[in-house]
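Message: Study each token:
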Amino acid sequence: MDNSSGVGVLDKAVLVLNTLEAGPASLAQLVQTTGLARPTAHRLAVALEHHRLVHRDTQGRFILGPRLAELAVAAGEDRLLAIAQPILTQLRDLTGESAQLYRRQGDVRVCVAAAERMSGLRDTVPVGSALPMTAGSAAQILLAWEEPDRLHRGLRGAKFEATTLASVRRRGWAQSVGERESGVASVSAPIRGAGGRVIAAVSVSGPIERLTRSPGRQHAHPVTAAADKISDSMRRTTG
């Protein structure tokens, strides 16, 4: 089958990337595997390196670059949002509370999807909102399974403690009462991607008057069930 796109330089660049998918390669190995002329292979590899699509290992061999991983995460996020949105709507309808999906971006967590309560007192978190990683049940979830060094750094200035995160890991969900915002309570659970890594948090939130001071008692089960459903769907689509 002819895999040519009709754009020669693009086809040759993809040939280099396809070769590196098998592992590190020296320039000589690139030439041998791709069949490209040495100057052409070198020029393409260096150009791809400039755009971070190709990198070099400690031995100077060409390897796939970090930009590909970033693009893969972006593609995964699109998949996550497509999978999560109807489940967030179901969670909102089941609990009667606003539902949100958060991903960590550096020192903040960003609301990337939401299903808002249609009437009455609401805890509205617009999509795109950046909230602190130092307060709230979703922040607890996104921090609880981090590597120890990163976890301890994240506890600096946090309104929760290491013992709180230990409890989160043990029971598989988190709750907060007036932690991020006075009068607001929430419950969150982890969404897991490849290898069981926590990639996002699903939450419900609303006034303490409705959720009470023990919101997990009401909503831990539906929130964890929603998170598990999203996680399972993500694994099926990436498997």
In short: Residues 66-95 form the longest helix (30 residues). The two ends are 26 Å apart (CA to CA). The mean pLDDT is 89.
